[in-house]
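Workshop exercise sheet. Pairs work together: one partner reads the sequence aloud, the other fills in the structure field after running the prediction. Swap roles for the next sheet.
Pair: D.N. / O.F.
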Amino acid sequence: MADVEIRPLQVEISYLVKTYDVDYARIMHNTVYIRWLEDLRLQILSEHFPLEDQLANQISPVLEKTEITYHRPLRLFDRAIGRMWVSNLGKARWEVQAEISRGEMVAASARQTGYFMDLDKYRPIRIPAVLRDKWEAVVATNVQSAL
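Structure field:
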């Protein structure tokens, strides 16, 4: 069986590096990558478990850790594509992975982990069923089609 890359719940956003995104060397500043990761993560939630629904149920996602590797710089006026997917769901923790690319060139790759929190008790909770069910359905479909 060939290795098949599964990217459950993947989203994609197009970006343009603007003047306020670059440093004095005209290279995109590292904080912009973090902002774009936030855009991508919020897009996943918007499509699969909207923030409004979370807040109505008194829960919220919490970002616990960000790891980013810079492969190649992005420069002023570069057009980039950000892609993010939910790479793992545990009982209470989630993990997303992302790539930010210019054409076929990956400029940065990232991994973020977190959990969902009960806003009344400020304690972690299990991954909400609506998100888990969608993720498991995508994973199961991709595994079946790979067989």
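Discussion prompt: Residues 11-146 form a domain with the Thiol Ester Dehydrase; Chain A fold (CATH 3.10.129.10). What would you look at next?
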